[in-house]
């Protein structure tokens, strides 16, 4: 809606569309809100009511319902009060000739006529005591008088066809028909397939299953109750043995079911990679890959064998390849071989590197340099004055150097004692400050002295900001200075003197003001903000 709310208007209803099998009647395209109109219907149809437009401009249209042709009289009877066309939802009463009884009224439901008929009252009674399949006898008995009806009942999920009746001694029984099922559900992991939205009693249909699933059974309907087919996980084919391996515990002739797994075995020199398993019809097979030897193992006849004592080999030899050989372990400087292992030389002895640990035991056959000696030209010589070196250098090796001793550790500090000493000094400084302040009578001077003393005690800097401001008095000049800096006056101290002026003003005098601020009370950020405030006021300040 456009315009202000007071100008909004709800639209009338458009009722100019004729109903199916009818005409617009007195309906128009401007049916006012809260009113109605009457469309008309073709022959054989009856109007359901009036078309109406509610207060919100929403149309509820009437429709044309099929009428029933009720002008055909029943056998052995007449049409009674039945018209040629019977409206849907209406009833009429045919009549029967003498010796016959009418079964009830004829009714019309959306163009379908349920016609009453005439029963012969002569003849013997009928036995109506047998219940219909999937139902009960209801009010029927073993002696149903000719020309009368009775009503059996049906079990849940079944609907009775009509009534049972005795016509001239001949019995016609009502039946119980099964209800349809719907809406039909799709099976888990599947779709409806060729199943529609509903399924008639006794009918079947086949859903479809998703990837990896297969259908089990059919979807069926019995008495309004549906049995849904299932989508079961697909099994896998019989697993084959891996190349260079055997089946192990895997079945030889039975399919592997979903979720099952098994373990094949691998030939000598090969190891299993992966697990043979079944997942939704997809078979994953184990493979046998060439094995590799661990560190200090070598290949002998396609098997991993531990290296002989005193030898070594890197990991990774291919078990399926040719035989490999371990290399001798060579001892480091000042080591020798004992029982195929490299061990350090005893103190005071030395040995060149390279002893073969895979052979016989070796000796440390050189004298090592003692402590604070170094190797120079294959001889042990004393370290330079003030330098140190550990014992053990082999004079047959490369030259070595001595080093300066490490610095002594710093002395330990008693932090609690240091803190106590600081507190005593602070207390004495505060006592001296209070004594000094007691002799000062001028409040501005006292505030300045206190600020400077407290900053000295705390070990923080004091910033002095100088400026010239107009004011009516010295005290007023301090007030103006703090206001222009946008600071609380309690955060600093103030010194004032009259500035030299060429011309006196009648109302105000220019004062030179010095504002002192301690870093303990005013942060660097607040100080920068205050200086910016002075600059914005056009006041030149120096620090």
What does the model show?
The chain has 543 residues and is an alpha+beta fold. 12% of the residues lie in helices and 29% in strands. It has 4 helices and 50 strands. The protein has a 3-stranded antiparallel beta sheet, with no helix packed on it. A 3-stranded antiparallel beta sheet has the order 11-14-15, with no helix packed on it. Strands 18-21-22 form a 3-stranded antiparallel beta sheet, with no helix packed on it. Strand 42 and strand 43 (341-344) form a beta hairpin. The chain starts with 21 loop residues before the first strand and ends in a 7-residue tail after the last helix.
Strand share of the residues? 25-35%
* Envelope shape: flat
Radius of gyration: 57 Å
Order of neighbouring strands in the sheet with most strands: 2-5-6
């Amino acid at each position: 809606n456009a315009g202000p709310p007071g100008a909004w208007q709800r639209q009338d209803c458009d009722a100019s569309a004729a109903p199916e099998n009818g005409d617009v009647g007195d309906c128009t395209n401007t049916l006012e809100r809260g009113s109605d109109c009457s469309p008309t219907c073709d022959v054989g149809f009856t109007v359901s009511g009036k078309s109406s437009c509610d207060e919100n401009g929403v149309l509820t249209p009437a429709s044309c319902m099929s009428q029933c042709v009720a002008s055909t009289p029943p056998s052995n009877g007449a049409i009674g009060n039945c018209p040629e066309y019977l409206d849907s939802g209406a009833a009429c009463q045919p009549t029967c000739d003498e010796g016959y009884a009418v079964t009830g009224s004829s009714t019309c439901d959306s163009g379908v006529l349920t016609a009453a008929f005439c029963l012969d009252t002569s003849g013997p009674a009928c036995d109506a005591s047998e219940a219909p399949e999937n139902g009960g006898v209801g009010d029927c008995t073993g002696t149903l008088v000719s020309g009368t009806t009775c009503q059996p009942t049906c079990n849940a999920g079944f609907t009775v066809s009509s009534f049972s009746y005795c016509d001239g001694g001949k019995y016609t029984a009502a039946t119980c028909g099964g209800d349809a099922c719907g809406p039909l559900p799709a099976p888990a992991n599947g779709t409806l397939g060729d199943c529609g939205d509903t399924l008639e009693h006794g009918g079947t249909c086949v859903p479809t299953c998703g990837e990896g699933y297969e259908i089990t059974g059919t979807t069926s309907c019995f008495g309004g109750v549906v049995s849904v087919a299932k989508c079961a996980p697909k099994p896998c084919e019989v697993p084959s043995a891996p190349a260079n391996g055997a089946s192990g515990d895997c079945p030889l002739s039975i399919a592997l079911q979903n979720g099952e797994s098994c373990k094949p075995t691998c030939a000598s020199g090969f190891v299993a990679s992966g697990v043979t398993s079944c997942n939704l019809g997809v078979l994953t097979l184990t493979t046998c890959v060439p094995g590799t030897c661990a560190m200090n193992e070598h290949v002998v006849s396609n098997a991993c064998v531990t290296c002989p004592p005193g030898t070594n080999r890197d990991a990774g030899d291919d078990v399926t390849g040719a035989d490999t050989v371990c290399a001798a372990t060579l001892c480091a400087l000042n080591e020798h071989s004992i029982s195929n292992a490299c061990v350090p030389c005893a103190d005071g002895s030395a040995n060149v590197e390279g002893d073969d640990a895979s052979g016989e035991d070796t000796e440390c056959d050189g004298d090592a340099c003692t402590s604070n000696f170094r190797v120079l030209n294959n001889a042990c010589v004393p370290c330079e004055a003030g330098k140190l070196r550990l014992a053990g250098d082999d004079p047959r090796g490369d030259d070595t150097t001595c080093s300066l001793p490490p610095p002594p550790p710093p002395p330990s500090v008693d932090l609690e004692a240091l803190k106590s000493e600081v507190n005593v000094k602070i207390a004495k400084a505060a006592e001296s400050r209070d004594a000094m302040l007691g002799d000062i009578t001028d409040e501005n001077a006292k505030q300045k002295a206190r600020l400077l003393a407290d900053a000295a005690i705390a070990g923080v800097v004091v910033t002095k900001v100088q400026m010239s401001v107009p004011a009516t008095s010295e005290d007023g000049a301090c007030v103006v200075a703090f206001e222009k800096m946008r600071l609380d006056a309690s955060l600093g101290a103030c010194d004032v003197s009259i500035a030299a002026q060429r011309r006196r003003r009648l109302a105000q005098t220019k004062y030179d003001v010095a504002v002192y601020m301690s870093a303990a009370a005013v942060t660097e950020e607040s100080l920068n903000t205050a200086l910016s405030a002075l600059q914005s006021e056009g006041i030149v300040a120096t620090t």
